[in-house]
Amino acid sequence: MIREATFLDIPAVFELCKKAYAESSNHQRLYAWDEEKAISSLKIFILCNGATVLIDEKGGVIRGFLIAELTAPLGGVDIIATDVAFYVLPEHRGSLTAFRLIKKYESWAKKNGAKHIELGVSSGIDHEKTLSLYAFLGYRPLSVTYTKEV
After folding, report:
1. Fewer CB within 10 Å: C terminus or N terminus of the chain?
2. What is the pTM of this model?
3. What is the pLDDT of residues 5-41, one digit of tens each?
4. What's the N-to-C CA distance of the chain in angstroms?
5. Do 103 and 56 form a contact (C-beta atoms < 8 A)?
């Protein structure tokens, strides 16, 4: 079942966040992990009206999550929904978990007035499969991000 997370879900979602970070070589190169910051961020995303933490739960087990927020570009009037983090446990990849999380994300975005929905791929986890799913669901590439250590 896809639903919005509550404060009671924070410990389980936090464990998945740790797994996502541990699996993502790209994120490990970009930033150090801070458990207190992760828990604090989850609380903010759950509380904030302009954000959501969506989870796929079955039998008390959270199989994946999608964290998203609403933004507006500088000088823009349209709302954009953008994902902050998206992770599915390895044993549930290839199932309907990612598909259902994205569909719920789209529903949430539309309900909250978004005109555009963004999904990124930055972790380096199953990059090609993720891009194929996004394309299958009607998403198209829009931008490229470069990084540089300073």
Report:
1. C
2. 0.90
3. 999 999 999 999 988 887 776 555 566 778 899 999 9
4. 43
5. no
Rounded to an integer, what distance in angstroms lies between the CA atom of residue 117 and that of residue 74?
17
Conformation bin of residue 60: beta by default, left when phi > 0, alpha when psi is -120 to 50: left
Amino acid sitting at position 46: I
- The pLDDT, as a whole number, for residue 69 is 97
DSSP the chain: -EEE--GGGHHHHHHHHHHHHHH-HHHHHH----HHHHHHHHHHHHH-TTEEEEEEEETTEEEEEEEEEEE--TT--SEEEEEEEEEE-GGGTTSSHHHHHHHHHHHHHHHTTEEEEE----S-SSHHHHHHHHHHTT------------
